Amino acid sequence: HATTALKRWLYEHEERPYPSEEDKKQLTYSTGLSIVQINNWFSNARRRYINSGKGNPKGRDAAVAIRAANT
Questions:
Q1: pLDDT above 60: residue 1
Q2: Which residue from 21, 23, 47, 61 could staple onto 53, CB 3.0 to 4.6 Å apart?
Q3: Residues 16-59: pLDDT tens digits?
Q4: Segment (H or E) for 3
Q5: CA 17, 22, 2 angle in degrees (round to 5)?
Q6: CB 16: neighbour CB atoms within 10 A?
Q7: What torsion, rounded to 10 degrees, do the Cα atoms 18, 19, 24, 27 define?
Q8: Integer CA distances (angstroms), 36 to 22, 25, 28, in order
Q9: 4, containing H or E segment
Q10: Residue 11 burial (CB < 10 Å; 0-12/13-18/19+)?
Q11: How much is the pLDDT for 17?
Q12: Euclidean distance between CA atoms 18 and 56, whole angstroms
């Protein structure tokens, strides 16, 4: 699924969850989604997962949320 690849990228880059243009191109290739869809997904994911760990400077709460969403 496309979401699996996107969640994996987000988890691996939790310290800076903003994909570069090159990252986005690679994600469009691997997921079949458009750049607009990739942008929207990351915008929503940062709100859902990253902001949930806002009080935690290392973002560990967000990592747990992402891992749970991957299951």
A1: yes
A2: 61
A3: 999 999 999 999 999 999 999 999 999 999 988 766 665 344 44
A4: helix 2-12
A5: 65
A6: 7
A7: -100
A8: 14, 11, 10
A9: helix 2-12
A10: middle
A11: 92
A12: 18
What token pair was written down for 10? 């987000």
Residue entry with tokens 């990228």 = 9
**Alpha-carbon distances, residue 9 vs 30, 33, 35, 55 (angstroms):** 12, 14, 15, 22
Q: Are 55 and 3 in contact (CB under 8 A)?
A: no
- Supply the DSSP string of 9-71, one letter for each residue: HHHHTTTS----HHHHHHHHHHH---HHHHHHHHHHHIIIIIGGGTTSTT-HHHHHHHHHHH-
**C-alpha to C-alpha distance for 9 and 27, rounded to whole angstroms:** 9
